[in-house]
Amino acid sequence: MTTTWPLLAESHDALLNAVKGVGADQWDLPTPCDQWTVTQVLQHAAGDQLAYYAAITGGEGPAENPFAPSGTPLADPVAHVAAATEAAAAAWAGIAADDAAVAVPVPPNTLDAVTGVGACALDAAVHAWDIAKATGQPQPLSETAATAILIAAKQIVEPLRAWGAYAPALEPQDGDDAVAALLRYLGRDPEWTAA
């Protein structure tokens, strides 16, 4: 059985493309993730993808704590992220779309397949946005993906706020599109700048 998850594929592509777009002198720039550099966000995002892989397959998880990324420069950031997203995608490919109980690395540690894959996609997509925003790249999220990810976010984010994984939600604004609505729900200002 191989299950196709277009939302996850789009989110992984967004993350990989954002990393590919980082300039050699941009790895230490600040990001919308308070007190984390571009390198640290990359390490966190890759680590989270490996955490999903490990939860689903029982395989090896990230080498370092995704919530305490070292910021140590990576020899090949693109390869680092590609390996992590490929591992997560392979794990999810073995999960049936109607599976009601998939092991995941976020509370409650078991989710239905659609919510679980949405949570995994959320992690990749939002950190793609963080990296793109910090390095002056175009916003990488589609309206369709943002709409689907927000559904998953509303299932998992509230308990994670208590652990500091997400900032408090920001108030919706008139004229917000689906991407802005997702970002505000996750405590991010769509108009964030490093200044």
From TrEMBL:
Domain of life, per lineage: Bacteria
Pfam families: MDMPI_N
Matching InterPro entries: CHP03086, DinB/YfiT-like, Maleyloyr_isom, MDMPI_metal-binding
Residue intervals of the Mycothiol-dependent maleylpyruvate isomerase metal-binding domain: 8-132
Protein name: TIGR03086 family protein
Organism: Glycomyces niveus
